[in-house]
Records
---
Amino acid sequence: MPEHAMPSRRDVLAAGVGLLAAGGLARAQSTPTGPSTPTAAPKGKAKNVIFMVADGMSMGTFTLADTAITRRTGRGSAWARLWDDPRARRSMMATRSLDSLVTDSAAAGSTWGCGRRINNGEINWHDGEEFEPILVSAHNAGKATGLVTTTRVTHATPASFIANVPDRNMEDEIARQILDRRVDVVLGGGAKYVTPELLAEHPDIRAVRTAEELFTSGKHEGRLVGVFSKGHMSYELDREAIEPHIKDMAMFAIDRLSQHPGGFVMQIEGGRVDHGGHANDFPASLHDMMAFDLTVGAVTQWASRRDDTLVIITTDHGNGNPDLTVYGERSLKGFETLLGAGHTLTWITERVQQGERDAWPTRLHDMIAEHAGVELSEDEVDWAMRPLRGDRVNGFDEANLFVCALGAVMANHFGVAYISHNHTSEHVEATACGPGAETLPTRIDNTFLHGLMTQALGLPVG
Ligand SMILES: [Zn+2]
């Protein structure tokens, strides 16, 4: 099929038959939605690449964050406003993995990390073969490298730019590879894996554990690792001052990395947008998405003052497809209620479950009232608790969970409903600006972005 040509109905049917006949999804690789590598990218035009990921961002998540930002500032989100720049390019990106039409973050991140389509759960590794991740290529080419995330730094998306492991859960090994492979700035959560013992093996690394330590770390020249929580960092709505804001981590890292004369390559991940989706917790995703957008604004403003930095902004997959889905006054009131939530549903339910089990219904009612500003009826509380008693609440098996039941009753008040607690197969937005962006086609497979980066940087093709 010629590049850029729309697939015919016959191609689509043939691909479907191929899936079944081959007994797997590998065959799907033969029908990409667009070109698989850039065809005419100028080599070596970009000195730096900043790759930004709002993990697990369904379009409804983007839409409601954009709406909230517009109401707050009178202007759209920084990501959407970037599309007004004639130099920015947009693409619709397909996200499937080798063994699944619904990808996970390991396989999706690896398509950017090494340009290969692999199975869910694998990181730059398939069938015993390892593929060089982009931060290794960049380091070997004399560039500084960085990883900034709100998840554990050993989580799948940051790992996909630096590690080779057959299983994303091998986070001890991923931590070791991040340090051994000499990433210059690493900021996020995950002290559980980036242990003091491991850090002690690398005496040249400056390690910090709080926002204050980070921002007073001065002009130290060597590598810097900041892990601000044992596991993932807090959701933005629940964050306390000891943990830095994602925008501040990102700009701190850029400030350091941009001192390097050879340029730099980094990934910035708003990683917990995804976790809000898994928890059917829209206050969580909304505020993490808004924090990510503040970061987009700061990063693109920094990059716009120079002509040597390619910025790519995207997501790895959707999650739960949440959206506002009530009409009229209810939509307006629901959105206002949503914006008024003082804590995430996850924060609230963790505390509900710390008490006696018999008291959970009352505690749930009271804590939702206090921290989310919603008065649940007795029937709604009962409905939310049903999955905990083993009762069904939905014809769809995947939605018979406490988080989904609570998410569903909260939809009566927020107006925002989910289809499941899983990732989704939806095509997603990819935006690029800076040198190399001009080669981004209007629709791509996720594997394309690896070649876009390596060609813009003039890195050897792996
Ligand atoms: Zn996820």
---
Amino acid sequence: MTSPAISIRNLTKRYDLIPALSDISFEVPAGQIMGFLGPNGAGKTTTLRILTGIIAPSSGSVWIDGLDVTEHSLEVRRRIGYLPEHVALYSEMRVVEYLTYRARIKGIPRAEQSSRLKSSLEQCALTDVSRQLIGRLSKGFRQRVALADCLLAKPKILILDEPTIGLDPHQIRQTRELITTLGRTTTILLSTHILPEVEITCQRVTIIDKGTIVAVDTPEGLRQRRSGLQLVRTQWRGAPPSVIESALKQLPNVMRVTFQGQSDGICSFDIESQSGQDIRESIFHMAVKNQWTLRELSQQQASLEDIFVQLTTHE
Ligand SMILES: Nc1ncnc2c1ncn2[C@@H]1O[C@H](COP(=O)(O)OP(=O)(O)O)[C@@H](O)[C@H]1O
Ligand SMILES: [Mg+2]
């Protein structure tokens, strides 16, 4: 049996006694693109920096390609390409000069350097700008230079920390396409706080929040959770919003009531209920009993965003 490309077991990290990661475990099978999804401050970057050997865990262990990262940090670094959250490039160098310099640092044999350089430039669609100064390039191009750097040594595993942050929509689409292509030959752990990103690019998704894993699922599985979540949109007249809100919250199977606004004496609420429970009839009976006017009662399709919020919201 082949070992998973990435394996994290009971990993805990504290910064000055404050836990950033609390006993997290998950695996990335070889050949997969795994999304690592979580809101800002969830602990994504901390996890990736431990995986790449930049910082040490407080406890627990991480393996890359079957090797313990703390024991075999050099071999591990040879197997991974790491795109950090904030990339520092030499802006006064030309793309090709920079990548040549990086190839040397990475100890790529001289005879292979030019072919590795050429193929990294091609993979990242940088061939046309290879003679330009890095400082003159747009953010999207600079991001691709950093990615080309990651690819130079032909890593088996790519670890990408929010690779589309700060890019415009066109550049985001190009980067996602590039990641999808790279994923055909490489294992990828892709951190992001953007839900559609994992939906588009990843085979599996690990969701992290406040330093703990809240779900591991496929994008399809997340969609099924969505179909189990009922969301009803309502509009009311006849009582102050706070009165209607507290009445709604007392209905059976109601999980969450969200005030959507008020104008001309009409107020709106979105109501979420547990899976398989249709709450529309009890909302209707509540309106009749109180003699409130119910202007709208419609079932909405919950979005993947709703599931994400549901998974990462703490009561
Ligand atoms: N070097 C550090 N020193 C102290 N606290 C840190 C440090 N790095 C991150 N943290 C804290 O750890 C938590 C997780 O941060 P981070 O891993 O950067 O999350 P994410 O990448 O998901 O946004 C946050 O509360 C952050 O403030
Ligand atoms: Mg981060």
